[in-house]
Specification:
323 residues; globular
């Protein structure tokens, strides 16, 4: 990966106008990585545009540069280089992704265990806990000191994708990086942790109570399903943003090895998210077989049809994995 990142660093050095983006439905790793990159690039006089058709989630809007994201590019926008983070499959960028004459060369930085390479340079390293780690490595190769804003973005990237250093992807590399961010770059873990977890809505708590009471445990107690519908959200006074992280409650139930959340996708079809613990399920491989992808312990896909159809398909795939 080191040589590949050196090639990326060279492309960044040569470019003047750079587009930064990620998969639709940005999350902590993608937004944290992007704001860190934006801060570093701006500090070295690059023209930068942060782009995603979807809004930055409420719990991340306080991050530096997060309010600079645009949902639509100007008609005459042209870039020398586009950097896509946290995305292992071009279809996750959506049908509004700009044409090649707009993007220029495309570099994709990813860390998922399964994917479908795209772009001019595609780097995917599953041993890396979060794309924020790759951003820090790029800065080191470029010999660019981390700005305060970049350090915050990288920290948010790694702390969200490791589940606060609780998930299996937590390794010595990411812990050393986190320690350096605190010791050398002034990151305050308590302050950032508070900002990431505060301001939950009452609708979210009503929704949580409802989904916990209706959680369905199957396959000998190894799998727990949560299903969320628009009608359920409305009755709880919640929004889709309030569903963030609810799947972890299913995963954490005693005896459960895999939690599954099923809901309508705003892009059409059914959104499936999986979170696993232990070695019983590799949900990255399971979701990859259904057109999605991800890590061994966290993955997702989108299926055609109704919620009930998706439920049958997913349960069958998990049952087959148990065999």
């Amino acid at each position: 990966m080191s040589e590949a990142l050196k090639a990326v660093a060279q492309k960044i050095t040569e470019a003047e106008k750079i587009l930064l983006t990620c998969h639709r439905g940005p999350d902590g790793d993608s937004v944290g990585s992007l704001v860190a990159l934006a801060s570093l690039l701006k500090a070295h006089e690059k023209t930068v545009v942060l782009y995603n058709p979807d809004l930055v989630p409420r719990y991340l809007k306080w991050l530096p540069h997060a309010k600079r994201f645009v949902q639509q590019l100007k008609k005459k926008a042209r870039f020398d280089l586009t950097i896509v983070v946290d995305c292992g499959d071009a279809k996750l960028l959506g049908d509004k992704f700009p044409e090649p004459e707009v993007t220029g060369e495309i570099i994709a930085l990813d860390h998922h265990g399964s994917g479908r390479p795209f772009g001019d340079i595609f780097i995917s390293e599953p041993s890396v806990a979060a794309v924020g780690v790759m951003v820090a490595q790029l800065a080191e190769i470029l010999e660019w000191p981390l700005t305060e804003d970049a350090a915050q973005g990288i920290y948010v990237s790694i702390v969200t994708d490791t589940g606060g250093f609780r998930y299996p992807n937590t390794n010595a590399q990411v812990l050393r990086l986190a320690a350096d961010l605190v010791e050398k770059n002034g990151v305050d873990p308590a302050s950032l942790g508070e900002r990431l977890s505060q301001d939950s809505s009452r609708g979210r708590y009503r929704l949580l109570a409802q989904v916990l009471s209706e959680m369905d445990v199957v396959l000998g107690g190894k799998v727990a399903f949560i299903t969320i519908t628009p009608e359920l959200l409305k009755s709880c006074g919640a929004t889709w943003e309030d569903t963030e992280g609810l799947i972890n409650y299913a995963r954490s139930l005693k005896g459960v090895s895999c939690g599954v959340l099923i809901s309508p996708s705003k892009y059409g079809g059914v959104r499936v998210s999986m979170r696993a613990r232990g070695e019983l399920f590799d949900v990255g491989k399971i979701c990859f077989s259904m057109g999605g992808g991800g890590h061994q312990g966290a993955a997702g896909c989108t299926l055609e049809g109704e919620l009930s159809d998706a439920r049958v398909t997913v349960e069958a795939a998990l049952a087959a994995a148990l065999q």
